[in-house]
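User: Hello, can you help with two protein structures?

Assistant: Certainly.
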Amino acid sequence: MTEATEHFDVLIVGAGLSGIGAGYHLQEKCPGKSYVILEGRDCIGGTWDLFRYPGIRSDSDMYTLGYSFKPWTEPKAIADGPRILNYVCETAVDNGIDRKIRFHHRVKRASWSSPDARWTVEAERTVGEGATEIVRFTCNFLFMCSGYYKYEEGYTPEFSGTADFEGRIVHPQKWPEDLDYAGKRVVVIGSGATAVTLVPEMAKTAAHVTMLQRSPTYVVARPAEDALANKLRRNLSAKLAYHMIRWRNVLFGMYFFQLCRRKPDRAKQLILGGVKMALGPEYDVAKHFTPRYNPWEQRLCLVPDGDLFKSIRDKRASVVTHEIDSFTKGGIKLKDGSELEADIIVTATGLNLQVLGGLEVSVDGRTVDFARTLNYKGMMYSDIPNMASAFGYTNASWTLKCDLTCEYVCRLINYMDRNGYKQCMPHNVDPDVTELPSLDFSSGYVQRSIAKLPKQGSKRPWRLYQNYALDIVTLRYGKVDDGVMQYS
């Protein structure tokens, strides 16, 4: 059964970190606009509610992962999942955004009609025990804040012999509440942000935790608490202290990213020097912590207070760098013939990326293939009208870019209102713009999906520079009518 269609000026998809931010910016900058947030799950928080594995935390500091409009006031700069979730929920409740959310609404399809200048959005609503019905909404502007990966399942490669293993196999994206690992031998497969979070946390009570990696990742230790930030907050207003630390962290992040790109050997020396200091001269840093690529060709892993290194020094955890041959009855057999014993195997093997939460999009009856679109200013898509998506930085905090995206979308909507326009659509007329992959990352999760992702162009405004300072200039102060965005 389909209910009567409801209409909103703006329809936001997703009630996670970026969706709640979008609601706030709309209320502040476009106060006359009606909006609704459709959320497929039954609660606020997105990633920060979905992931429940031990030790779940951010790998960005909260002064940049936090919203520009809501100071982070907790002592820990590298915060755990429950605290971040609390921050997002608090933002929603304090600003009345929670009242605009419709839970259990999984958005499936969106079709644009040029004659009507509106989107028709179909969502699957859960009613009662597992039953669903289709509900329709129309909107003038569609704002996708549904993240960049598939919530239903993580990525697990095919390992031979998984049926033979007599223990439990767990993926961090589907962490079972009843998993008791105290006194057990645990193998965590992976070397990314999830693995380096899980290993020290599980090592607190497990008999031993082994991080099994095919190849190493760059790992950087940072203090969990920011001493200067806490000192400034004691002496200045929360807002002023927050913005000062936010800018200090942004500028340092930009400086370090540029150092990695321009002087990779120097950056490598700095990172590996830190690891050698943490693990001592006897440890084989070359084998276990020296990647085959340069720093920032993939995301760096952050370990608060060097907790991973401490668990290795205390012999509660260890790192094995080798390829897997197969799972066995009692663990994992490696390609060199040796075997790792395990009671529990955690496959921290990554995410499945997907464009706009897997949404099916059509424009005037034509199905859109996002792999054939160009990404405009990191948020809109060529020849798709009145639609934007919040996609954060890959080399800095996610929220920094999402905040700017929300500001820009509000500017765009207000500009259209002032000029009586009903439609805005980025359209490339420059024959010199060539297509490039949208993400310049060699990470497995990016490379597995790159063919399905939208492209970026060789120059502005189709080019993503992953540079916050540059984006502030173009998104906050640049012209909305730039000759590429077509209004009608």
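That covers the first. Now for the second protein you mentioned:
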Amino acid sequence: MEKSKSLVDRLNAVNEYEQQPIPSNKLKGWRSFLGTYAGEHTAGTEFVIGPLFVAHGASAIDLVTGLLLGNILAVLSWAFLTAKIAVKTRVTLYYLLEKIAGKKFTLLYNLVNAGLFCFLAGSMIAVSATAVGIPFDMPMPQLTDIYPNNIGWVLTVFGVGAITTLIAMFGFDQVSKFAMVAAPWMIMVFIAAALAVLPRLGVTDAGSFWSVAESTIWTGVPLEGQSKFGFWHILFFAWFCNMAMHIGMADLSLLRYAKKWEQGFSSATGVFLGHFIAWIASGILYSLFLIESKGSLTFAPGPIAYGAVGAAGAICVVIAGWTTANPTLYRAGLAIQSINPKWKTWKVTLFVGLFTTIAACFPGLVMRLLEFVALYGLILMPVGAVIFIDVYLLEKLGLKSNYAAVKGIQLNWSVAITWLVTLTFCLLLNLLLGIEIFFLGLPGWFVAVLVYVIASKLNQKK
């Protein structure tokens, strides 16, 4: 009983400054962000996304060049968009949005945001579960699976989800510390695993790697039933797979702790270790799995890593899933908690963790991860454009920033109209012109900027 009380007291003492700027004595240096980004982006998603590029028939040259340019654009977006605003305001995305858009819009946005984050965290819990289930000879999900296919899978997911939720409940400090411990080890396992299996793919020396890569790993030919990915798919996916975090401004909640905006460049540790090296490494592992399993439909990161390098690979999958799910649950908890500041963040995170764990039981989250990641970034993108314009442009145009707070209103219609018009525009591009979801974010951002400026002029003039 005493231990339980002590735990609750510790959780109640966690202060994430949800409704106020971060105090100067709580700001963090480069080390915290280098570890957090490396841990979050060298993570469970990499064991899924890398293989999916193989399944979608990316060629070797398209993969390398697309990832290089796309990741550079992502780092620039984090630094020049998100980090600058985070250091300028020192508040969470949700609190800033409430001042701009009003409580009614923020309530809707937070529910949508938290739900999307829960699904992403759930997919990572599922990734970890594929490794935890190996010793029990648990049937693994197939490429075509949407629903859980056995009770062992559900029990394993709930065990992994409980640990993930507990870490997230202790706030940013624990999330950051966990990432700093796990990240260096994980990236070494990714690299070592890929190097270890290259001889089994026919690579005899450094000079033969590229020819094997083109003929055996990234052949340019998609698997049956999968669409074809080219250079532009890869570039825009690498740039926009974390659109919700940088262009969508979700990482204001993390980067508000930064001492200076240049720490936004620490995202490079995540994208180049995770979204470049780790995607390439996991693609190598999956191509070997396809060859040795003779085209098996099993799509489970745990067995793929275990088949390549044994227990170290399986353990890496478990930790990798946690390092993505932990900060994602943290963000989801903040989104829900901002609806009612009197709620304790750790209690909200506990509830969110339960919802996330239930979602993780459905393997379809993992099988459709590329499309889901692109979709959730697209949905949150218009609000990022609104925040950017509100912070940097509105007052220069003679308009009021933080309009909802200034006028004391519950709903700023300029923001609501911007969100609705932008997403409708993107939907029409997809339905009428057949533009794939991966490419909609860029034109959508400029439409959001234009609509918000016009709507603000009309609204504030009235």
